[in-house]
Amino acid sequence: MFADLPWNVIALQLFFGVALGCVYVLLASGLSIIYGLLDVVNFAHGTFAMLGAYAVFVAVSMSGSFFIGILSAVVIVGLIGAVTEIFLLKPLYGKDPLLPLLLTFGLSVAIPDGMKIIFGLIGKPVNYPSALSGATLLGPMIFPNYRLFIVLFTLVIMISLWLFLKKSDLGMIIRASTRDSLMVQVLGVNVSRIWTIGFAMGIGLAALAGAISVPMMSATPDMGVDMTMVAFVVTVVGGLGSLGGAIVGGLFIGLVVAVASFIAGEYANVAMYFCMAVILLVRPRGLFGELGRE
Amino acid sequence: MRSRGSFGFVALALLGLGLLAVSLFVVAPAEAQEKVIKYGTMHPLTGAYSVLGRDQQRATELAVNEWNAKGGVLGHKIVWVSRDDQLNGAVALRRAKELVEEEKCDFIGGTLSGAISLAINEFACKNKVPYVAYCQSDMVTGPDQCKFGAAFMVIPSSAALAVSKYAFENLGKKWFAITADYRWGHSLLEGWMWQSEQMGGKFLGNVYVPLGTSDFSTYYAKIMAANPDFIVMNNLGADQTAAIKQASELGLTKKMKIVCSKTAMHTIKELGPVYDENVMGGMTFFWKLQDKYATSKKFVENYMKKFGDPVEQDGESGYVATNVLFMAMEKAGTVTDKEKIMKAMEGLKYELTKGPEEVRACDRQRVQSYLLVRGKGAKAKDWDIADIIAEIPGKDIIMSCEDNAKKLPFSNIKLPK
User: Fold this and answer.
1) Is any Cβ of chain A less than 8 angstroms from the Cβ of B224?
2) What is the mean pLDDT of chain B?
């Protein structure tokens, strides 16, 4: 299948897979943080990504700058996340674990409908920022600039996230809370606030994924459904609650989709779910999962 | 006291009798007098094609209102019921059942997916309920044919024939296709491959893409390597938007043309500057036809007066389907004899939204022209988003009745794996 193709085409294909995987990494790391910290299975994760895409659309139409768009997507949608956590999720903690799941599922149905009322059914386009359009030539290789940007951007975000969690005091508290929130509380930390921050962070990451996707596909009210599915597949493959798992899982699934669409396009999605099924059978806790480890 | 009490009783009794009498006069004669036709339609109001579904629904409303304003059909008022089929075959079948069994609709119409229309057609045939399909559907061909179905948009292969003819004459011979992986997409590809054989085209390859795909970049490396003269898009809606957007991101629209077998006004609008003069698409109707036909002008104006935006082809198709159904009733002189009404539809001539057209007698397929439009890109203003570059007459692209019945000429086409 690959033998009769020039190597630079194959390399480009793999690069597309990595760029696609980067969007998945952002999506899944947010989902993973939320699950690790709050034990909440966020079925509305893709929905918040969709809000990020719309935030970019609004901000770009007002300011004209894509980068202001990305910034406002994180801030606005992150705040919406915080408000959601405080007013909707908090009252459900300690009760039936099914309740937060049902709540987020409800949000994933209600929010898109709300967006349809506000923005209409037709997708809202965002153009590629002019600084990032076109392609870079590296010898015989062509790299579309926007995809290069996605890769670099994700790299920067993930490194900052890692530094924040490993090196900062707040990051340390967050990590401690995922292990033993009761102990952290006993030490005098307001865990409730940590949860809010963690949820807002996870939602902010989802918003980023939606924000950087929007020039490629335009913002539509229903775009969140697929993103939620992808986030779950990646998280299951990488391992629930693990940031490293989200990164490896995201890139892995991106490459799987790229290779599958090369060989048999109609099976690109199926390949993704197939990977998930195999991982579930062979290693139920995922590649790097913390949960279920003996 | 006593007299007042009895007065009160009498007053109450009189009031009661009065109400009863009024209700008898108001309700009873109305029930007896009102002669109605119940027409039920299904549209994808949620899901990937919801914008187009809404358009169908609106245009149907317009047609029904116009007939009712004229006094209905043969003295019968039209009662119209519409449902969301969610672009899902199982849901659509459930809705069709509801419309017929619970709402007591005698006539049904609508849907936007060819695959769904086939299912509805089967249901309609079994239950002997006339069904007018709004979408590109294969149900009028070969074994799927039944005397209760009629199709009002060009069938996929006709659309492919019209667009491919222009493409091979004007854009080059080497082509590569991106095809939505379901029956509609496959039918389009079939038409393209047949035409390619007839006109000396060079087919370089095809990728089947699942419905609802948002990232097409992973399909484009293959296309860049093949370097065709043009890329054929056999998809629609959000899928087409993403595919064209990403082709432009990769600079493909500068190197090759993009030709959509079917495109939509909202897709062009949404893509804005990206849908430039290198991107072309087929349509059964575009509002600029109003410069050519008086009927188009009247239809577009009436629609815009009611709904603001100009009408899409899917709405136009529904408008014609609904109108023809009622015209057939008038021609047949009955609103109840369904077989007679379907018979009357055969060979029915009319002029509603474009030039003169007819419903072909052999298979109740609307014979209509197909347009090719070219985007205006950055020069687009408001809804002036594309130019009509060709109108291919219906008789040139419709399969002959003989071929149609035998599923020729495409039966020898082998689709790529």
Assistant:
1) yes
2) 88
